[in-house]
Amino acid sequence: MSKKILILAPHTDDGELGCGGTISKLIDEGNEIFYVAFSTCEESIPDGFPRNALEMEVKEATKVLGIRPENLIIKKYSVRKFSSVRQEILEDMITLRSQLKPDIIFMPCSNALHQDHNTIYNEGIRAFKHFTIYGYDLPWDTVEFKTTSFFILQKEHVEKKAEAMRCYKTQNFRSYVDDEFIFGLARVRGAQIATQYAEAFELIRIIQ
Questions:
Q1: Which tens digits make up the pLDDT trace of 42-85?
Q2: 132-136 and 72-74: which strand pairing?
Q3: What phi and psi values does residue 175 have, to the nearest 5 degrees?
Q4: Which domains can be identified in the chain, with CATH numbers?
Q5: Is the whole model's pTM more than 0.90, yes or no?
Q6: What is the DSSP string of 41-110?
Q7: Which end of the chain, N or C, is less surrounded by CB atoms within 10 Å?
Q8: Residues 131, 207 contacting (CB under 8 angstroms)
């Protein structure tokens, strides 16, 4: 049976970076993906790009992964200031819970260091405590990450993730937004479970 899966991305690109290969795999398997980006980071857009650049990029990137345009939800919270509006974010999540009735949630892990990622984790736990939840892997955002669950990927899923990340022209100066890093991490996670490619997750809660 197909499932409804909700991706909670603090900022545009976090969902693709954390679980883009898994999104591609799950769509191939017939599941329906909803993606929520809580900020388009207009305050952090590099010089030379329009202020809505990340909004346009996330639309392109999620389309590459196979997410329907109508299943992309974009919020406009200010980057690095989520903690000051955590109640509004929680209420957004509760509304999503009621409207979408998802089966599985993907969100930042419990050890996320970025203040916005940490807020999405904390409010996500409150809103979705009765749901299966996976915390995704952003190595530059943690000191410690619990690899307690894995999704085995095929090469084409990793290629889709890399293609999606190439949509983010505003972010291509970052060391983790390139094919070499994306394939390298997928190979490392695959090696942990004796397969070629995988994405690792912190299994926060499982409901069966």
A1: 999 999 999 999 999 999 999 999 999 999 999 999 999 999 99
A2: unpaired
A3: -65, -20
A4: 4-205 (3.40.50.10320)
A5: yes
A6: -GGGPPTTS-TTHHHHHHHHHHHHHT--GGGEEE--PPTT-GGGGHHHHHHHHHHHHHHH--SEEEEE-T
A7: C
A8: yes
